[in-house]
Amino acid sequence: MQDIYEGRIKNWKEVGGPDRRIIFFNKEPGRGTWEVFAHWLYGDPKTAPAVSHPEVGGNEETRTKVSHTQGAISQLSASWANQSAVALSIRLDDGSIVAPVASEIVSGRYPMARPLFFITNGPPTGDAKVLIDFVLSSRGQELVRKHGYLRLADLKVR
Questions:
Q1: Phi and psi at residue 104, in whole multiples of 5°?
Q2: What CA dihedral angle connects 81, 114, 89 and 30, to 10 degrees?
Q3: Region class of 147: left (phi > 0), else alpha (psi between -120 and 50), else beta
Q4: pLDDT tens-digit profile of 1-12?
Q5: How far apart are the first and last CA of the chain?
Q6: Residues 9-62: tens digit of each pLDDT
Q7: R_g of the chain, CA atoms, integer Å
Q8: pTM of the model
Q9: Helix 138-146 crosses helix 126-136 at what angle (to 10 degrees)?
Q10: What is 2-107's CATH topology?
C-alpha cells in the first residue's frame, strides 16, 4: 500500500488486478480517516511523506469520486462503502486476510478503525445534551447501527 500511496505502483496489474491505472484520491489534511490510514501505513501520521494526488474532502465527495472513476482508491469509512465504492480487506503481516466488518473491528484484528467522540466544553447542556442523550438512547443507537457504525453495545464484546 505504501508503494501505491507513494506512487511507485501506478497500475493495478502490478498487484494482481486488471491493466488499469491507479487513481489515488487522498483525503485532505486534518481528516480523521486520513489520520487512521497514515497511522496504519507509517506508524505515525507525521512520518507519512508528502504526496501529489487529487484531494477529496468529505465522505460523500470521496465515495462519489471513487464510484465514478475507474481504478480509483481512497481512504473512506467502511460505513460509506456501497456497491460501487467497496471497502477492501487487508492482508496482515501473518498473511491472513481481514475484512472491515463489525466482528473484525470489535476484535481489534482490523487495524484501521477509530472511535468517534462528542466533545463539549464542560458537561453538555442545552441542545448538545439533547443530542448526546438521543445518540446514547436505544433509538439513537439503532440509527448508529443503521448507518453502518458500531453501537456502544457492540463494542462491549471486547
A1: -75, -35
A2: 70
A3: alpha
A4: 999 999 999 999
A5: 28
A6: 999 999 999 999 999 999 987 788 899 999 999 999 999 999 999 999 889 999
A7: 18
A8: 0.79
A9: 70
A10: D-Maltodextrin-Binding Protein; domain 2 (3.40.190)
DSSP character string of 93-113 = TTS-EE-SSHHHHHHT-S---
CA quadruple 102, 103, 104, 108: dihedral sign? positive
Provide the CA 50 distance to its chain's centre, in angstroms.
20
Please answer whether residues 32 and 76 qualify as being in contact, where contact means their C-beta atoms are separated by less than 8 angstroms: no
CA distance 75 to 140: 26
Local structure of 24: helix, strand or coil: strand
The one-letter code for the residue type at 88 is L
What 3-state DSSP class applies to 43?
coil
Within 20-101, where are the H helices?
Answer: 32-42, 59-67
Identify the pLDDT of residue 158: 43
pLDDT in tens, 88-146: 999 988 999 999 988 898 888 998 888 888 999 999 999 999 999 999 999 999 999 88
Grid cell listed for 153: 453495545
Length of the chain: 158
CA 19 to CA 85: how far, in whole Å? Answer: 19
- Domain layout of the chain by residue ranges: 2-107, 115-158
